[in-house]
Amino acid sequence: MSAVSTDIDPAGGGEKKWRRRGLAALAILLPLTLAETSYESIREWLHGEDLIARDVEFGQGAPFGGSEWRLADLRGGKAGRLPEHALAVIATFAVTVGDPDLQKQWLGCKVMLTDAAGRRWLPDFISGVSLPDGVMNCTSAIFSGAKKGEIISVGETFIVPEDAIETIRPAIGLGSERPWFLRFQRPPK
Amino acid sequence: MRIRAIGNLLIVAATVVLSYGMQVSKPHYAELTAPIPIDGAMHDTVRARSFDVRLDRMVFARTLKTNQFGQERLLTTSGLWAVAATNLTATSTSTTVADGTWQGPTGLRYRQTERLSYRQDMPPHAVDPELERSGLFVFELPADQIRGASLLIAARQFGPLDAQARISLDAVPTGADGQPADVLPLYDLDAPAPPQGQTRQDQTRQGKT
């Protein structure tokens, strides 16, 4: 402020010049302020949403959240107590643990199924359907104490309408990787 | 010079009046970020942002019967029990629908009852895209809050700027005293639901037997 007032030349056009500069500064400072104040919110939002898909071919592994993820199996059928026109789907991943700090790397782990229309199904409990032996869900895996190099099976059960079953693809989102998420190609028929 | 002074005074006075007006008319923050209502009627599918809801039937009763841990419980009230049976689906992503509010004719709002213990057909309702799921919302109300009421359904209780389905209950038949035409003496929440597609008249008849 003092620098500004010393520069003002009361006799000449100094005041006018500084007024103009002040106005021009507003045009820069206002958007900057807006960006600065909303930066944290935007960052937080981006880290909470699975927005950008990283596609992975079937049979291939992809590094994600410090580990290597590969779609091991995707199967669907009538089982347990289901609503009409719906099928039970079990998606299983084989994960080679890299960074064993899963509680940090896999926080907010979300396994989902996506279809061609962009709809998403989250895991459901189906009475009468359980995961195959040796397969655990993502939350259990986080607290399983898996060591580096260990290969663990992570899976979830879903209820999906019959008409979506043809195009569903399993996907996985992790807190440490958002807004990116992995989307796997289906196994060939 | 005097004119200029008066002019300045007028400008100051006008600014004070304008500022005061803006201050008193400023909406409360809760109003600015309130849920956005989406209107609909009974038996219509109301499309909120993250879910679709259809109110299939309303049942009013003096007493509710429910099973709690294998024990039968009868819940009485000095007012009325209102049980809203809805059909819910998610629009694009699996989500939960948890909040139901009864808005009476004068704007009084009633939250869902907390007297019922956990039941599968009570909120929060987990809903998936394209998979219909039936869900109940149960309220304990004074009898004069039925006519002209609305049922408000939202994903969460505090969902700023999120959609809220506002279903008008004008289709509920009421008597001259404003009370519902059909009030069951006892309603069993565990009785099997009537088949889909039944009309309201059928329901009423069933209720009377």
Describe it for me?
The complex is a heterodimer of chains A (about 190) and B (about 210). By secondary structure, chain A is α+β, with helices and mostly antiparallel strands. Chain A has helices spanning about 1-5, 15-45, 100-105, 140; strands at about 50-55, 60-65, 65-75, 85-95, 110-115, 120, 135, 150-160, 170-175, 180-185. Chain A folds into two domains: about 1-45; about 50-185, Sandwich (Immunoglobulin-like), CATH 2.60.40. In chain A, strand 5 and strand 6 form a beta hairpin. Mean pLDDT of chain A is about 90; it is low at about 1-5. Chain B has two domains: about 1-30; about 35-209, Immunoglobulin-like. Chain B has a five-stranded mixed beta sheet with strand order 1-11-10-6-7, with no helix packed on it. In chain B, strands 2, 3, 4, 9 and 12 form a five-stranded mixed beta sheet that branches. Chain B has a two-stranded antiparallel sheet with strand order 5-8. The chains are: A alpha+beta (about 190), B alpha+beta (about 210). At the A-B interface, strand 6 and strand 8 of A face loops of B.
Question: Which keywords apply here?
Answer:
heterodimer, A: 189 residues, alpha+beta, Immunoglobulin-like, 5-stranded mixed sheet, 10 strands, B: 209 residues, 2 domains, disordered C terminus
Q: What is the total number of structural domains of chain A?
A: 2
**Could you name the ranges of chain A where pLDDT drops below 50 across 5 or more consecutive residues?**
1-5
Helix content of chain A: 25-40%
| % residues in beta strands of chain A | 25-35%
For this structure, the CATH topology of the largest domain in chain B is Immunoglobulin-like
Largest sheet of chain A: 5 strands, mixed
Give the termini distance of chain B in whole angstroms.
90 Å
Oligomer: heterodimer
CATH-derived architecture of the largest domain in chain B: Sandwich
- SSE series of chain A: HHEEEEHEEEHEEE
Shape of chain B: elongated
Structural class of chain A: alpha+beta
Question: What's the Cα radius of gyration of chain A?
Answer: 26 Å
| Sheet with the most strands: spatial strand order of chain B | 1-11-10-6-7
Distance between the termini of chain A: 73 Å
Which two chains touch over the largest interface?
A-B, 14 and 10 residues
